[in-house]
């Protein structure tokens, strides 16, 4: 009979700083603290969490780096709840992806899956003002650009169309991800190169999809909205990849022998 005892590995102990960070986050929610509200003073946090001054300060610094609080020195100073804007959150995510090999295909793999879902989720919320915004954006790019500046503005407006649709979603996470993907297409170096090229864009096809989408959303036809957006995203990916290939061909042909 084997009497040897099998010892399970000890669980990895979390840093005390991380535990305090999570505890402060939970207190922000449980106490319903809002942007501008002050956290307890440092000495009170030390007492509440039975931690040293250095550990509490490290936890507060971590929360500040995350954009959840801001600190102010001097009279009336302390740690205050900050409002994490969508733009700042996206900047943090963009920094994470900065050294990764991100491609147009990577982005559209997600857009093709999520843009139809976010459009369907917006059906019950989008109002007359939202539909007016969509029509105003189409008016920005429903004609040939007069110069490079207008060409750039048109490409940004095309992405903003989808940003407006996502802003009416009742799924905050889905809307955020779609907004982030749209921002990546604005910021990705290869996309910027594509948007600045003078090659003609098949804008009429995309605009046709968008008018159909608006009509289906007005009718609250979820199946039609999903189908139209799925086709629209596939067409958009094909167009971008085609322009990317043209850009690469130009680059190769311009290289010295």
From TrEMBL:
Domain HTH gntR-type: 14-84
Keywords: DNA-binding, Transcription, Transcription regulation
Pfam families attached to this UniProt entry: FCD, GntR
SMART domains on file: FCD, HTH_GNTR
Protein name according to UniProt: GntR family transcriptional regulator
Organism listed in the record: Hafnia psychrotolerans
């Amino acid at each position: 009979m084997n009497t040897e005892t099998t010892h399970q590995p000890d669980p990895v102990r979390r840093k005390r700083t991380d535990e305090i960070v999570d505890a402060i986050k939970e207190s922000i929610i449980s106490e319903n603290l809002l942007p501008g509200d002050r956290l307890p003073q440092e000495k009170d946090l030390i007492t509440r969490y039975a931690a040293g001054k250095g550990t509490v300060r490290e936890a507060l610094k971590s929360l500040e780096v995350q954009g959840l609080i801001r600190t102010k020195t001097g009279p009336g100073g302390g740690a205050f709840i900050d409002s994490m804007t969508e733009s700042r959150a996206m900047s943090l995510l963009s920094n994470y992806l900065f050294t990764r090999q991100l491609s147009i295909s990577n982005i559209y793999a997600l857009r093709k899956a999520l843009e139809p879902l976010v459009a369907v989720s917006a059906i019950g919320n989008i109002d007359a003002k939202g539909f007016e915004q969509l029509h105003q954006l189409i008016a920005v790019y429903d004609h040939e650009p007069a110069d490079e500046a207008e060409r750039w503005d048109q490409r940004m407006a095309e992405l903003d169309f989808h940003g407006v649709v996502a802003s009416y979603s009742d799924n905050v996470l889905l809307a955020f991800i779609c907004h982030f993907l749209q921002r990546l297409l604005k910021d990705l170096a290869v996309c910027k190169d594509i948007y600045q090229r003078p090659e003609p864009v098949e804008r009429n096809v995309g605009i046709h999809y968008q008018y159909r989408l608006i009509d289906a959303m007005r009718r609250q036809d979820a199946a039609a909205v999903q189908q139209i957006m799925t086709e629209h995203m596939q067409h958009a990916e094909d167009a971008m990849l085609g322009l990317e290939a043209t850009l690469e061909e130009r680059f190769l042909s311009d290289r010295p022998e």
